[in-house]
Design goal:
Shape: elongated
Strand order of the largest sheet: 1-4-5-10-9-8-6-7
Number of domains: 2
CATH superfamily of the largest domain: Bira Bifunctional Protein, Domain 2
CATH topology of the largest domain: BirA Bifunctional Protein, domain 2
Number of helices: 17
Largest sheet: 8 strands, mixed
CATH class of the largest domain: Alpha Beta
Low-confidence stretches: none
Number of strands: 15
Strand content: 15-25%
Radius of gyration: 28 Å
Bound molecules: adenosine monophosphate
Helix content: 40-55%
């Protein structure tokens, strides 16, 4: 028995009809993002592992459990022998900040507005809405002294505008603020105080998180931990006056755009780099993995990664989850054809082969059979491919120097000279 291969666990093939849906999402994303002044950036799919450890955070789930490392040999080879540990990118923000610093973008423009579309990789236990290779669309706005509640609201507005444009039926915006680094430390302290009496009842992971990253306890899915978290008193008393004012202004900006949101003081996000505004967009259609996307402000990350002082805000949306939430009623049937060429014998096939090239050069979508066969079977193929017209060439047409052109919608059939064929098809297709 010859071994048959299939996709590795947690990855999917995207077959041609579904790929059309993906293209549509990507086209809409580009259209909306460009309208807000964002430009596309593409970065490698692997980076030095340390980039993610120093940005996402040593204690985050991503770094603790989900990084997909290249094997030592692979990493060494990819690095040209330097032997640094490389990993497939688990998220897009850190690579973009790395690129921002590497390209000295702060010297070129006051605010770099960037977007990306691409595959991300996390070694998770696969389930619905949770894959090992998934795709994100995201934006990042980075610039020295660019921290502004207006920009936060623009980024959130842009995210929702995209979801509206691609007709995601229902979604909900959850909003919170973490405040400055000092405010976050105050919040950690308060959380530890409140959680301390219950520490022994937390799951083993959360007992570890208690000292290392107490915020992560708020995201734990274990029932016991959720019951304890539900009892916590979460408010905004950990914030300094300036953070409070900033948050008030963000909400005011969202109100001015008529954006409805729900405040969720327990939504703290799992990545270390966030400060001030954080948000999540959820869809009730998604079940337990209900986040379509999430984002927030990260004003210290650029400097933390060795760059200049630069503030930043961004988000990432998961494409697979968007497609799940849209619940496409049916997959599209694929690209339709302008013309299908039917060849009844070898000389006709040779003639049609050249005709196909001429028509395609005129921007006409053409396909054909590559072996002579019966009219019936080739017409069946043309129908399946939803061809608008069929050109039939056999011995008789060859002898007379004509082709038979059949309109597949009305069924009308006419014979035209081969030399006029290209012009006639262009005319009827309005090309
Ligand atoms: P995160 O970077 O974890 O905040 O994720 C942002 C968005 O990416 C999520 O809301 C999901 O839509 C998507 N996402 C994250 N991890 C996965 C995954 N393992 N599988 C599919 N989508 C994911």
């Amino acid at each position: 028995m010859v071994k048959k291969f299939s996709t590795p666990r947690g990855t999917n093939d995207i077959y041609p009809p579904q790929a059309l849906l993906w293209q549509e999402l990507e086209t809409q994303a580009r259209r909306v993002f460009v309208r807000y002044g964002y430009n596309e950036i593409r970065t490698p799919i692997f980076e030095e592992s340390e980039l993610f450890v120093r940005s996402v955070g040593q204690t985050s789930d991503i770094v603790q459990k989900q990084m997909l490392h290249l094997s030592p040999q692979g990493a060494t080879r990819a690095q040209g022998g330097a032997g640094l540990q490389l990993s497939l990118r688990p998220e897009g923000t850190a690579p973009i900040v790395r690129a921002y610093i590497q390209d000295n973008m702060d010297k070129k423009e006051q605010l770099s507005k960037l977007f990306y579309i691409g595959a991300m990789f996390r070694g998770e236990r696969p389930q619905k809405g949770r894959l090992r290779q998934f795709h994100q669309i995201g934006v990042e706005a980075i610039g020295p002294d660019s921290c502004s509640p207006y920009l936060d609201a623009e980024v959130i507005g842009l995210c929702l505008e995209f979801l509206k444009n691609i007709q995601v039926p229902m979604y909900q915006l959850k909003l919170n603020t973490l405040g400055t680094v000092e405010d976050k430390q105050n919040l950690s302290k308060k959380l530890r105080q409140q959680l301390k009496p219950f520490k022994s009842e937390l799951c083993p992971d959360c007992q570890n998180r208690f000292d290392r990253n107490v915020f992560r306890i708020l995201d734990c899915k274990q029932k016991a931990c959720r019951q304890i978290v539900a009892k916590l008193k979460l408010d905004y008393t950990h914030l300094c006056e300036a953070s409070r004012e900033y948050y008030r202004k963000v909400k005011e900006c969202l109100d001015s755009l008529n954006i409805r949101f729900e405040e969720d003081p327990g939504m703290v996000r799992g990545l270390d780099y966030y400060t001030q505004t954080v948000f999540e967009v959820c869809s009730p259609a998604l079940g337990s993995q209900d986040a379509l996307g999430a984002g927030g402000r990260y004003d210290n990350l650029v400097a933390q990664l060795g760059g200049p002082q630069a503030d930043a805000v961004g988000f990432a949306l998961g494409l697979e989850r968007i497609l799940l939430a849209r619940e496409e009623p049916q997959t599209p049937s694929g690209q339709s054809l302008d013309v299908f060429l039917v060849s009844l014998d070898e000389p006709s096939l040779a003639g049609n082969f050249k005709l196909a090239q001429t028509l395609r050069q005129q921007d006409i979508v053409v396909d054909m059979s590559f072996k002579p066969a019966s009219v019936k079977s080739q017409m069946r193929t043309a129908n399946k491919k939803k061809a608008r017209f069929v050109v039939i060439v056999g011995q008789e047409e060859q002898r007379q120097g004509i082709v038979t052109l059949k309109d597949m919608q009305g069924g009308h059939q006419q014979q035209i000279a081969v030399d006029h064929c290209e012009q006639a098809i262009k005319r009827i297709l309005n090309k």
